[in-house]
What does this fold into?
Amino acid sequence: MSTQELAPAPGSPGPVDVEQAEAALVEHYPRLVRIAYLVLPPSLGRNRRVLTAHALVQRSLPRRRTAAVAGARRGAEDAVDPGYAYVRGEVLRQALVAGLPLRRRAQFPPLLPQVWGLRLFPRAGGADELALDQRLSALSGPGRAAYVLRGLERQGDPEVLRVLAAAGAEDPEAALAEADGVEAQYVLLESAEFDPCSLQARPTDLMRRRQHGRAALAAAAAVVVCGTLLGLPGDGWGRNGAAAPSYARNPAAEAALDPDGLKRVGTTGRQVSSRTDFSVWPARGELTGDTALLRRALAVWARPGPTVRTSATPGTPPGPPMGSPQLLFAGRVDAARVVLFFDGLRVVRYAETVGSTSGAALDFARTDGADAVGSAALVVSRAAGNVRYVTAPWVEEAAVRDLLLPDKEPRVLARDAHGVTEPVPSPATARGCTRWSVLQVRDETGTRLLTDLGELAPARLTSGPPGRPVDVTGAAAREEWARAACQLSAVRSHGVRTVNSWAYATQRLPEGAGRAGWLCVRAETWRGTGSRALALFRAPGATGPAAIAARSDGSPACGVREPRVLAGVVWQAKSGQWYVLAAGTEDFASLALTGGVKERVEGNLLAVQAAPGSRADLSGTLKDGTRVRALR
It folds into this structure.
């Protein structure tokens, strides 16, 4: 029987066995590596920080698999997952040691993993992420750890002090005071800028290696294996801005990078096409005739140099164009010149600062299979906490709406002659969740809501059961999203195409506490895989967002293939009594608890008293007799 292990109440004693710690490491590996990367000293450089972060996490298990791990004294929050708390403590301890001078270290730097001939680093974020990284670099290791525990782990100050002390910090209170000096931009910690599991690769200094002869054998092998891709440095195409030296000299490659060969669709293209997507966007912007700008953009796309900040959504290949791309937009937005291309698979954004062509930004987003809604808008600029969109020519009206205020009327956005909107607050870089501004677009077929999740293509928001979702236009759908909006940060920078919210159950709580709501939020991606499902629980009278009860990556739950979900939480009534609560969709015939709490009930709702510290496994049986696992 597939089960879900529910968290115990705070205070449960006992050691953590090795298998439990290993399971926690495997399940939470990306998060643990992110914590290590953020705490490690920035002086290591991004490439070494990435490798060291992976090494620290991989050696955080105890050496012996047979003995139980007693660990340090555990706090209330550790009882939720003691295996994870133990591994996280080991990761923090090693990361703090790595920041000490060599003469004060109790261990040698990690030897594995190692990568030769390549520099690895996370995908680039925005200006806010860069500024936060700079501020964190000025803190000590314990100061960074305190900020990360507060922001990424959502821990209170007493728990932060306890965890820092257990990890070996000499003065936890001073570390907490350091963290107070950095603005609380905790949502940025989930950014791809700080994700050492989603990496870009670039060669090391090839000229220096050749001059000094430090890797003659490796260089010879690289020429044999990668010569057709990298080739040898040539004399370039001249004024190509931030592009690297030319690596290909065949006619087809040069033709794809010729600005005169760009595909340009006229304003009547949509009228004669059977499709309504990016392929019928006309070329817009006041710089569509700037040949020098277009040449630089194409050259940087093909050969991004070391000063180019490159990012790509998950599953998007960041390679050169596969032929002459289509020009969507070229114009000046804020303090940058921006060019948007479409090659049938990806939308590519090139941006350079006005007055300089030595550095640039290059962003890739997969958009194949886009329909009229999926191609209704693109992010053209994101600066100073704001975002500007360029809308499709068939969008009749654009407005901004706050998801957290479902009854408030939207505000119409001004657009220039090229479809570029005025700046609006971006929820992708917002500090906290006091508002969630979404783009509302209206065309001849209806009104839709799109939200910025830190990528080029905004995600479409829908509501309703899987297979029958509708756009968020009614009062009930807006009220539903008001409860779920703040959890959209969990799917930021994930290559998301659509996000659906489904209110799948309501439950009357014990002791007359009112009715609680259960939601399932599912994010579908452009690449088709890597979907993310969140089960949310909202107690009656709660003023904040719905709490995450369960989360799963790659699960078909809440989707068209498996339109069902089961999740549970531990809830405390005002009397102090603890309860195990669970809710499934209507196709569940019964629910069962095993382990520390044993109970079986008919129907799709469960509420059972539980002692503090109890642990229980949740499962369900469908009406056709099939046993299914709870979301996890």
